[in-house]
Amino acid sequence: MFLDVVYIVVLTAVAGACIPAGGLLASFERIRPNWLEQEFRHFLIAFGGGILLGAVAVVLVPEGRASMQGSLWSIPLILLGGLLFFGVERGLGLRRREAPQLTGLMLDYIPEATALGGLIVVNPGMAALLAALIALQNLPEGFNAYRELCDQPDYTSRKTLGFMSSLVLTGPIAGLLGYFVLSDHQAILGGIMLFASGGILYLIFQDIAPQARLDRHWGPPLGAVLGFCLALFSEMLVAHA
User: Fold this and answer.
1) pLDDT digits (tens, 9 = 90+) for 185-226
2) The pTM is what?
3) How many whole angstroms separate alpha carbon 13 and alpha carbon 31?
4) Which has the closest alpha carbon to 60: 122, 18, 119?
5) CA-based, 20 to 30 A from 140: which of 44, 62, 205, 212?
6) Could you give the angle at which helices 186-203 and 34-55 cross, rounded to 10 degrees?
7) ∠168-191-131 over CA atoms, to 5°?
């Protein structure tokens, strides 16, 4: 058990550390020439969206359905996740606190880390893959969330990076919760993965995909394709190990 706990903390902490790492990268405000800065940011938005879509397609939905033994309840759970994410974003928007990148980051990072903790007992290889996908998606999401937060009047660079660093702790906490509470309740674990999938799908098509588009530029759409292929390639490596 002790080794499992250490493994969970290390995996989730490393994945979470990519949040402030992405923010630190974004703190270098200017990339010359200006068109490259625009293209790079939109490429990262699309890349993160591609990884999120890949995480849903190759890990969260297949593992979630398997944990629920193929139950038809999988579909309502995915729909419920989308509806809840819509409600949260709607509430933030009505209070003029729209921050879709930060919202997406936290609403997928926490349930994914919880699922990771539960998977350690059942499928350690898939847990490691999920940790890698969380890390890969947290880096571009951290980059975009930093830029998003710095547009707010009350945020400075130091304050924003400090806040993003504090988010790292939520991953190990969620992972340990999944390990101690959900590892013996596979149906609940599967439900969380499917629920998170619905929310992620909503955020991809509501916020991330529209922000990724850039007129007369081919880089961002290819970034989405690259992100999805990277997620699929990672899953294939685990499957053939």
Assistant:
1) 888 888 988 888 888 888 777 766 666 555 555 555 566 567
2) 0.76
3) 29
4) 119
5) 62
6) 150
7) 35
What's the one-letter identity of residue 58?
V
User: What value does the mean pLDDT take over residues 3-14?
Assistant: 93
Distance CA 137, CA 19 (A): 9
| Gap between the Cα atoms of 2 and 18, Å rounded | 25
| Alpha-carbon span 77 to 88, nearest angstrom | 16
Termini Cα distance of the chain: 24
Token pair in block for residue 61: 């939905």
Q: Report yes or no: 56 and 200 within 8 Å, Cβ to Cβ.
A: yes
* Confidence label for 101 from pLDDT (cuts 50, 70 and 90): low
Instruction: Determine phi and psi for 217, rounding to 5 degrees.
Output: -130, 135
Q: Give the model's pLDDT for residue 30.
A: 58
Asked if the peptide bond before residue 33 counts as cis, ω within 30 degrees of 0, the response is: yes
- 64 token code pair: 């979630």
- DSSP letter at 183 equals T
% of the chain residues with pLDDT over 90: 13
Residue 223's nearest CA partner among 21, 88, 81, 39 is 39
- Per-residue b or e along 92-125, where b marks 16 or more CB atoms closer than 10 Å to that residue's CB: eeeeeeebbbbbbbbbbbbbbbbbbbbbbbebee
Longest dimension (CA), the chain: 54
Name the helix (H) or strand (E) containing 57: none
Is residue 36 predicted with pLDDT exceeding 60? no
Q: Say which amino acid occupies 123.
A: N
CB 20 within 8 A of CB 161: yes
